């Protein structure tokens, strides 16, 4: 027996499923999916087969032509869930499992109509990364076992289903239900399985890109993301032909716990990106970049997550630089630096979570999640780029993507490839310090620009009375204001808050990066005029990136702590399970 992924029961001595055929019936009343999955192996085999499940109710397991076969569920591990061991008879090519999802399926959030924009129909979405696919489908839930899939999804008439796959048709069943069919012909890791069901409409953005959203938001979504084809073209010029046919996007309800999720052919996005001024499209650049780094070349397990995210952050900023220039890219790196420092501070007592090549046996990958694989990873990639020069590095990246297309690899595989193609470069940038040592190497690249230096200086002069001029206030783009706010002292006075709010009109901002940065400062200052807006944001938005700092900043005074507990009590039924867990841990740290 050999289990190569500490977060899966997958046994490398057993065959991998090559394709899944899914039949999913979405039951909004019971908040469950009735599922049938056929795991196709593409060749005959027999013996034990270990699958991942979590909270699933297994009903029957069969082999076509043979009938029911024996199976057994192992003990429930709080992180991994339960191993489902099948006893596969000789000459089997596929197994068929009938099952039902559990009430607590972490991959699924079932929304009441009131939690949607239209408020008339329920909504369901999935989020399988890191290891939640097993709460939706019994499978080898590790990126090592890549699968193609096809699916048939039955939903109530009037609702639309989308998946991380191409649509292949739909029809009314005449009994109040509607079936949607999908096919994903390319092999993907299980964490990229994705489904959403709701009242959805779409708008075409280019011959290969459209955006889906509720009817109430689809027009503003189409406006916000109108530039996506331009981004795809820029990304193709850097990394080669777009490998997934279509690039469609879905704007979710506000409880979606992430900013974006790179589900192939259907990127999922938080509606907090709809700032009304296209100022947050860097998240689209990021998810699009995952089409190459992450979805095409995939981390072999969460221990190598930096291969997905570090490369993607680097790629995202490369795309932004070609689109918007060096100043914009430098601001992006500065925002990343702030996120990196916050994460390093959060993990100051857990230095093993600040290395890139992680060791996560017994650790929940959602607990290990931070900006470190993103930003420390991107800095290692940028250091290599600076070491060998941009052109040579881009050729290397293309070779890398060719060599490992549609495979899932480890840090060690990346390093041997890099050593073969760019001899000496890893050592020259001291890669081991990034990969195996906590914190940041002192030699890490610094990203500067005159514009960024100006903003930094101005923010640092705040306590001494330095203030932006009226002309600066009027001319700053959203990214400049965001970086400026990030660089202000964390503890402001009430008068400071009032000055900022008045001069920058912060309370009414639609750009949630700016709004939340401001509300975080206001919360830390116990600035009462911001309380209603803090309550509004925390009650509506489930994006963990915002919940963590905002609830964290409310921990500073007894009054704001009480406010936080009261808001959480009212808002938590509407939060995604992941978001609820994050906020609970923040609130628990208050009293300590
Ligand atoms: N793949 C991630 C989201 C994710 C990570 C989901 C880990 C579950 C577990 C996605 O590509 C991402 O990084 N999103 C960021 C966007 C940002 C870095 C531009 C986010 O959600 O904030
Ligand atoms: Zn990402």
Short description:
By secondary structure, this protein is α+β, with helices and mostly antiparallel strands. It has 20 helices and 20 strands. The chain has helices at 218-224, 228-239, 282-289, 305-324, 326-346, 365-368, 372-388, 390-403, 411-421, 425-428, 431-436, 450-460, 470-475, 478-487, 494-504, 512-524, 531-540, 544-553, 558-571, 577-591, and strands at residues 19-27, 32-53, 57-63, 67-68, 71-73, 82-100, 108-111, 123-126, 147-156, 160-163, 166-172, 177-188, 195-198, 201-206, 209-213, 248-251, 260-261, 266-269, 297-299, 407-409.
What tags apply to this protein structure?
single chain; binds zinc ion; binds ligand BES; globular; nine-stranded mixed sheet; 20 strands; five-stranded mixed sheet; alpha+beta; 20 helices
Question: Can you characterise this structure?
Answer:
This protein has 592 residues and is an alpha+beta fold. The chain is built from 20 helices and 20 strands. It has helices at 218-224, 228-239, 282-289, 305-324, 326-346, 365-368, 372-388, 390-403, 411-421, 425-428, 431-436, 450-460, 470-475, 478-487, 494-504, 512-524, 531-540, 544-553, 558-571, 577-591; strands at residues 19-27, 32-53, 57-63, 67-68, 71-73, 82-100, 108-111, 123-126, 147-156, 160-163, 166-172, 177-188, 195-198, 201-206, 209-213, 248-251, 260-261, 266-269, 297-299, 407-409. The strands form 4 sheets. Strands 1, 2, 3, 4, 5, 6, 9, 11 and 12 form a 9-stranded mixed β-sheet that branches. Strands 14-15-16-18-17 form a 5-stranded mixed β-sheet, covered by helices on one side. Strand 17 (260-261) and strand 18 (266-269) form a beta hairpin. Helix 5 packs across helix 7 (372-388), helix 16 crosses helix 17 (531-540) and helix 16 packs parallel to helix 18. The structure holds ligand BES and zinc ion. The site of ligand BES has 16 residues, from strand 17 and helix 3.
